[in-house]
């Protein structure tokens, strides 16, 4: 498997920092804040929704979910506000921390999915 290029990592980090700054901005619309929060939590969580060892799907979730989430936040944010926070993110040397509560949310989603699957099989058989 080909490793992610450093330039791509830097660009993703810039977008995530822009989302972080957007969340803290008072003029940001609430739906954009919620989605930005979810994208950051997922991106920085040490646990993936679909583990990377699952062939194809494990890598596609990162390749598809993050860009779609970022694109949705950009679409929901007024253009001048997005331009402002993105410019701040490009000039920033800030780093984002690991978000362990994001991992807790992913574990909760998996627990619910497994519980529902178990309940389905219990009811079916």
List key phrases describing it.
elongated; single chain; mainly alpha; 125 residues
Concise synopsis of the structure shown:
The chain has 125 residues and is mostly helical. Helices cover 74% and strands 0% of the residues.
According to DSSP, the number of beta strands is 0
Encode the helix/strand succession as letters: HHHHH
Percent helix, as a range, is over 70%
Number of helices: 5
- Rounded Rg: 17 Å
Structure overview:
The chain has 125 residues and is mostly helical. Helices cover 74% and strands 0% of the residues. It contains five helices and no strands. It has helices spanning 6-24, 30-44, 57-76, 79-91, 100-124. Helix 1 (6-24) packs across helix 2 (30-44), helix 1 (6-24) packs across helix 4 and helix 2 (30-44) packs antiparallel against helix 3. The longest helix has 25 residues, at 100-124. The protein is elongated and about 55 Å long. 14% of the residues are buried. The mean pLDDT is 82.
């Amino acid at each position: 498997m080909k490793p992610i290029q450093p330039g791509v990592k830097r660009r993703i980090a810039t977008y995530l920092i822009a989302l972080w700054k957007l969340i803290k901005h008072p003029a940001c619309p609430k739906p954009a804040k919620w989605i930005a929060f979810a994208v950051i939590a997922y991106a920085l969580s040490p646990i993936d929704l679909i583990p990377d060892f699952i062939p194809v799907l494990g890598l596609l979730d990162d390749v598809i979910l993050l860009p779609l989430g970022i694109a949705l936040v950009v679409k929901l944010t007024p253009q001048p506000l997005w331009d402002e926070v993105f410019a701040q993110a490009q000039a920033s040397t800030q780093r984002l921390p690991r978000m362990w509560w994001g991992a807790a949310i992913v574990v909760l989603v998996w627990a619910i999915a497994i519980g529902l699957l178990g309940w389905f099989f219990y009811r079916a058989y």
